[in-house]
């Protein structure tokens, strides 16, 4: 988003949260204020970055997508808008895959959380990349690195 002409008070407040710019449950739960840090955009795929990711997923034989974020020391799997976890249970193959990964992590790396967005971060959100990718039959995770939003890179423990 071009900051010129924006009504946002700070330049850092203007723009689109690319992670929420995907065509799955778009802006059904989220923020419609273009000055909010979680603003999803005017429409799904309104941004060049989300358009590029859509092109890759739709034109190449991708089987796994990992979206890297900061904060949480977690591997988050879809669906980020589903507090109950019932949406994932609608597809046995997908549910079995995530259950298998969760079980393996708990044995090998119990300090790392593998769960849904709500289980890990205690909130739900909409229009996110990992949900859209799974809707295209590509397994996906958001890897939340570190324990704070502003963690010094030298303090990050390698966990993959």
Mind explaining what this structure looks like?
The protein has 160 residues and is of the alpha/beta class. The chain has a single domain (11-150), classed as 3-Layer(aba) Sandwich (Aminopeptidase). It is built from 4 helices and 4 strands, in the order αββαβααβ. It has helices at 48-59, 92-108, 117-121, 129-135; strands spanning 64-70, 74-77, 113-116, 139-145. Strand 2, helix 2 and strand 3 form a beta-alpha-beta unit.
Annotated CATH topology: Aminopeptidase
- Which structural class fits the helix and strand makeup? alpha/beta
Largest sheet: 4 strands, mixed
Number of strands: 4
Which residues sit in consecutive blocks of at least 5 with pLDDT less than 50?
Answer: none
Count of the domains: 1
Radius of gyration, CA atoms, in whole angstroms: 16 Å
What order do the SSEs take from the amino end to the carboxyl end, as H and E? HEEHEHHE
Shape: globular
CATH architecture assignment name:
3-Layer(aba) Sandwich
The first-level CATH class name: Alpha Beta
Helix and strand layout, with pairings?
Layout: H1 48-59, E1 64-70, E2 74-77, H2 92-108, E3 113-116, H3 117-121, H4 129-135, E4 139-145
Parallel strand pairs: 1-4, 2-3
Antiparallel strand pairs: 2-4
Short overview:
This protein has 160 residues and is α/β, with parallel strands linked by helices. Helix content is 26%, strand content 14%.
Keywords:
single chain; 160 residues; alpha/beta; Aminopeptidase; four-stranded mixed β-sheet; 4 strands; globular
